[in-house]
Every structure is written in structure tokens, then in C-alpha cells.
Write a structure and sequence with these properties.
Layout (H helix, E strand, L loop, with lengths): L11 H28 L4 H29 L6 H32 L10 H31 L4 H10 L1 H11 L1 H16 L7 E4 L2 E8 L3 E6 L4 E5 L2 H4 L3 E2 L7 E9 L5 H13 L9 E9 L2 E10 L2 H22 L35 H11 L8 H11 L3 H7 L1
Antiparallel strand pairs: 1-2, 1-5, 2-3, 3-4, 6-8, 7-8
Helix pairs in contact: 1-2, 2-3, 3-4, 4-7, 9-10
């Protein structure tokens, strides 16, 4: 029936296009049925359908339409332009499909590492690294797709030589313009593969407590304890000190300190601590210590150490222990801090007492040796004068001898 049919006419082109679309639909249905049949035995085919369904359908339709147009499009002058457009569309959709397949493969690998278990250090590290690899692969595929599209335009090969010749100057300018961005990109790669932080790690950054929620190429998102999000550049975790509470394990040691009165009994308080921890499910049983760490002034400082499986549990455990010990101190009424003042009346100071039989009190009082020492400080000091001054003093003192002295 179609032996004498002209496929390169304006009537044959839509017929060929319809046949191509029908064939594409048949391929899509067959592949979907096969994937769903395999999904009954395994879970990953269903995940593949959800991830790559749209790019696969777009790729099949684009290729089928391109083939029908190339074979039956009647306008010879518009055919090269139309073929170039189909080539660009195929490259773009193909990059989308490849990116979806790579993302599915990496996601399948990430699903093997569960982070909802107790010891999940390795799982968190692998998920962090795989997440970063997925983002890097998407960027690389996108760059390759753009480069492939650019190479389809005539004259780009000639421009490439001049671009390579000026690559040195361009790289310097680009490096200076994107210095901070590139620094964050390399810092993000370093964080992912140096195992400094991982997704779900508990950290203290900028004096804030939170969990690592997301690690990207340029920034890190910290989910704070009050549901705020702290967004920090990747360079922060490579240049600034921070605390990682789950670096090796999630188990932590916490403390509670109380300033109590001297009458408190540490042994009784220690028994009460054992009773509180024994009935508290948040305590993991690794350590329980009560010590008097200081005793100055009017109070003694009691420090209690306890352990828990992770930071949130430890915080709640510390609150429970503090509350229990406060109630115990109130019930005992022996450890409440008090201020003591001693008032002494009618007692003379030792330095104000008079010696018996003496009217005056010396500078030093006490035993005979002290009185002897005092005499050296309180007795008069003789002054020696020259002989001429003594003679003049004698003449002035004896007025009767003045005349005879003058006569002589």
C-alpha cells in the first residue's frame, strides 16, 4: 500500500512522525512493564522508574522524532537547521538522562548505609562523600553537555585555538574573580573526604549547638537545637576551630555542679545519686561519679559526672539528675547554702592591755625580750657635738666667768 507513497512530502512527513511517536510509545511501555515486573522482586527498579522516568521518555521521543524528521522532512533548506536543533536537544536530554542514572546509582549506594542505627559513623561518612560525588557528577555532566553543544556550531573549532592561546590570562582573571567561590568548592571537597564533619554530626559552631544537615560544594547547613538553620561557608570548617561531639562516637560525659553548705553529707548524696541514675533510662551505665571539687568560703562545690549515648540524651539526663539532687537537698535541709556571721563583744585586744604596776605601755608588749627590743626604739638617742661647740656652750652658760675669760 505504501510502495508508491511519497514519504518526503508534506503528507508523508506527519505520517512518518506519527509512526515514530507510536514506536516511541511502544518502547516506553515495554521498558516500563519490564521495570515494574522486576520491581516485584526487588525494590530498586521502582526507584529507577521514579528517578529516570521523565528523562528516559523525553530522550526516546526526541530520538524518534529526530529520525522521522531526518528521513521525511520535505524542505531541503530548513533541514540542516532543524537537524542541528534536534542534535542540541538530544545532547541536552541525553545529559539529563545520564545524570539521572548516575544519581540513581549513587543513591542506591547511599541506601545501603543507614544512619538511624546506634553506631553509624561509617554510614554517615559514606553518605556525606556519596552526596558530594553526586553533586560533582551532575556538574561535570552539565559542563560536558554544554561543551558538546557549543562544539556543534560552525567556527567554534577556530575559536578554540585563540581561547587556548589566551588561557593563561583568562585563568588568572577567573581565579581572582572567583577566589572565594573556588576556595569554598575545594573546602567542600576537603570536608567530604577528610572526614572532619559528616551529615548528622553534632557540632558546636559560632557558639551554637546543632547537627550537620547538609554539606554542599560551597556551604554547610547546621540544624540548630531550636530549629534554626545556621548556614556557614565551607571554608569556616577548614579555617576556624569548632567542636565535633560525634567525631569518633556519639557517647558523651556530662557534669552537674552544686554549691552546698558544709553540713551536707557527700556519702549520703552519693547514695542518692546512685538511686536517681538506677531508675533513669537515659543513663547508659558507663560512669557515675560524685566528688567534692572545692571547699572555700561558706560553701562546698559538688560535681557529679554521668554518661549517656548521645548529646540530647545527656542534656536531658543532666537536667533530671540536677532536679533530683535539688529535691533531695531540700528534703534533707542540710545542704542549703547559709551565710554565717560571728559577733564577739567584751573582749579586749591584746595590744590594749596594761602591764600590772606600769603606767605606760611600750611599743612592744609581752615577754622581757620584747620589752628589751622596744627600749632600743623608744629610748633617747645621745647627740655628740664638736669641742668648739662645747666651749661656746660653757661660756654662754657661766656668766660669772665671762669677765675673767675676757681678761685672760
Amino acid at each position: 500500500m505504501f510502495d508508491n507513497f511519497d514519504w518526503t512530502s508534506w503528507l508523508g512527513f506527519p505520517v512518518a512522525l506519527a509512526i515514530a511517536l507510536a514506536a516511541a510509545l511502544i518502547v516506553i511501555v515495554i521498558v516500563t512493564l519490564v521495570a515494574r515486573s522486576a520491581g516485584k522482586r526487588n525494590a530498586w527498579p521502582n526507584s529507577l522508574i521514579k528517578t529516570a522516568r521523565h528523562p528516559f521518555r523525553a530522550l526516546v521521543v526526541t530520538v524518534a522524532t529526530w529520525a522521522a524528521t531526518a528521513a521525511t522532512f520535505p524542505h531541503e533548506e530548513l533541514r540542516p537547521t532543524l537537524m542541528h536543533a534536534f542534535l542540541i536537544a538530544t545532547i541536552a536530554v541525553g545529559a539529563w538522562f545520564v545524570s539521572a542514572l548516575v544519581g540513581f546509582g549513587i543513591g542506591l549506594g547511599m541506601s545501603r548505609y543507614r544512619i538511624d542505627t546506634k553506631d553509624n559513623k561509617v554510614a554517615r561518612r559514606m553518605r556525606t562523600q556519596l552526596a558530594l560525588v553526586r553533586r560533582l557528577s551532575t556538574v561535570v555532566i552539565g559542563i560536558l553537555a554544554i561543551a558538546s553543544i557549543l562544539l556543534t556550531f560552525p567556527g567554534v573549532e577556530a575559536v578554540g585555538a585563540s581561547v587556548l592561546a589566551s588561557a593563561g590570562l583568562v585563568s588568572i582573571v577567573a581565579g581572582l574573580a572567583a577566589q572565594s567561590t573556588l576556595a569554598n568548592v575545594f573546602a567542600g571537597i576537603q570536608l567530604a573526604f577528610s572526614d572532619a564533619i559528616r551529615v548528622e554530626d553534632v557540632v558546636i559552631a559560632e557558639n551554637e549547638w546543632g547537627r550537620i544537615e547538609e554539606i554542599t560544594l560551597t556551604y554547610v547547613v547546621v540544624h540548630l537545637w531550636d530549629d534554626r538553620r545556621l548556614v556557614l561557608p565551607s571554608t569556616y570548617f577548614t579555617t576556624q576551630p569548632f567542636q565535633n561531639w560525634t567525631r569518633n562516637s556519639s557517647e558523651l560525659l556530662g557534669s552537674v555542679e552544686l554549691d552546698l553548705d558544709w553540713r551536707v553529707s557527700p556519702s549520703d548524696m552519693r547514695d542518692e545519686l546512685d538511686r536517681i541514675l538506677a531508675t533513669n533510662k537515659k543513663w547508659d551505665g558507663r560512669a557515675s561519679v560524685l566528688q567534692v571539687t572545692d571547699a572555700v568560703g561558706g560553701t562546698v562545690r559538688v560535681r557529679v559526672l554521668m554518661t549517656a549515648v548521645d548529646a540530647p540524651t545527656l542534656f536531658d539526663l543532666r537536667c533530671d539528675v540536677r532536679e533530683g539532687l535539688v529535691e533531695w537537698v531540700q528534703e534533707q535541709n542540710a545542704g542549703l547554702p547559709r551565710q554565717r556571721v560571728e559577733i564577739v563583744q567584751g573582749e579586749a585586744q591584746p595590744t590594749a592591755r596594761k602591764a600590772v604596776g606600769k603606767e605606760n605601755v611600750g611599743l612592744f608588749t609581752g615577754d622581757p625580750d620584747a620589752e628589751n627590743r622596744a627600749s632600743h626604739f623608744t629610748s633617747s638617742i645621745p647627740i655628740q657635738r664638736p669641742a668648739e661647740d662645747e666651749a661656746d656652750e660653757a661660756i654662754d652658760i657661766d656668766p660669772e666667768s665671762t669677765g675673767s675669760a675676757k681678761k685672760g
